[in-house]
Write a structure and sequence with these properties.
Structural class: alpha+beta
CATH topology of the largest domain: Helix Hairpins
Strand content: 15-25%
Number of strands: 12
Order of helices and strands: EEHHHHEEEEHEEHEEHEE
Strand order of the largest sheet: 6-5-4-3-7
Largest sheet: 5 strands, antiparallel
Number of domains: 3
Radius of gyration: 34 Å
Shape: elongated
Distance between the termini: 111 Å
């Protein structure tokens, strides 16, 4: 029964025994690669990178590679002549090669990200090449990185973007980020009073760090105002700069109103003359 020929493929006879051998060997191969992936590859990668999603992706790549090599070895050892499939396999390999270019590029980029760590899970990043996409990195896998924006939208970005394009990492060294808050007052106001008010507002805000200390710079003399720059550091609102600036602006407005400090607005003098050049009115 085992020697019974089911069909022929080229010069090879496909017997019942050969089919059983292929089934048993293939099953053992799939079970073996699954066990090796879980026990060795994923544990090793997790220990090195501390990233479970990336370890899972690497484990899958390892398993599929070993399965491909194992299947070739199994068919060759069984004596099956695969020369009839050579041309088909060659054409498929060319098409697959072109299709896997981006996947390979992203996979290699993922390895670079995991080992060099220019970005990591929890970092606040901005990608200017993607319409200034900004958000917090949630996961880094073998092919892509997931960024969660402040609008609670998850954006999946190919890993190659973080290697080939410029990326702003707001928390590369630590989560402390400095923000500059521009403030303008009328020319009649005392600059020292304005400076003391701005520092008071900054120091009383719970989200502003006491070290480094807030500072106030007199930036310029504008057309209608004296322009100051309040610079503060924050760590817990580095991912929400608009929230911090809004809190500070609300309190600055209240303190200016309390102290009688005028916030200017552009003013223009209009002189109307007749056809002879005589001044008619001025507003």
């Amino acid at each position: 029964m085992l020697d019974f020929t089911v069909f022929k493929m080229g010069n090879s006879k496909i017997t019942i025994g050969l089919i059983l051998y292929l089934l048993v060997a293939t099953t053992i191969l799939f079970v073996f690669t699954k066990v090796i992936r879980k026990l060795i590859v994923e544990r090793l990668v997790v220990r090195v990178t501390n990233n479970h999603s990336f370890a899972h992706s690497v484990g899958n790549v390892f398993r599929y590679t070993v399965i491909f090599i194992g299947l070739v070895v199994i068919f060759q050892s069984s004596g099956v002549n695969l020369s009839a499939l050579t041309m088909v396999a060659g054409a498929l390999s060319v098409g697959i090669g072109f299709g896997l270019q981006n996947i390979t590029n992203n996979f290699i980029s993922g390895l670079i990200i995991l080992f060099e760590r220019p970005i990591k899970v929890g970092d606040r990043v901005e990608v200017p090449d993607l319409n200034n996409l900004a958000g917090t990195i949630m996961t880094i896998s073998a092919r892509s990185t997931t960024i969660l924006t402040n609008d609670n939208i998850a954006v999946i970005v190919p890993n190659s973007k973080f290697i080939s394009e410029a990326v702003i990492n707001w928390s590369y060294n630590d989560k402390s980020v400095r923000f500059a808050i521009p403030v303008g007052v009328a020319y009649k106001e005392d600059p020292e009073l304005v400076r003391s008010i701005l520092l008071k507002v900054a120091n009383e805000n719970i989200h502003v760090l006491k070290s480094p200390e807030p500072e106030v710079l007199l930036e310029s003399y504008g057309d209608s105002s004296i322009n100051f720059l309040l610079r503060v550091y924050t760590s817990n609102l580095s991912s929400k700069p608009l929230v911090l600036s809004s809190e500070l602006y609300f309190e600055i407005f209240a303190q200016f109103k309390l102290q009688g400090v005028e916030i200017p607005f552009p003013q223009r003098d209009i002189h109307i003359r007749d056809e002879n050049g005589h001044l008619v009115s001025a507003r």
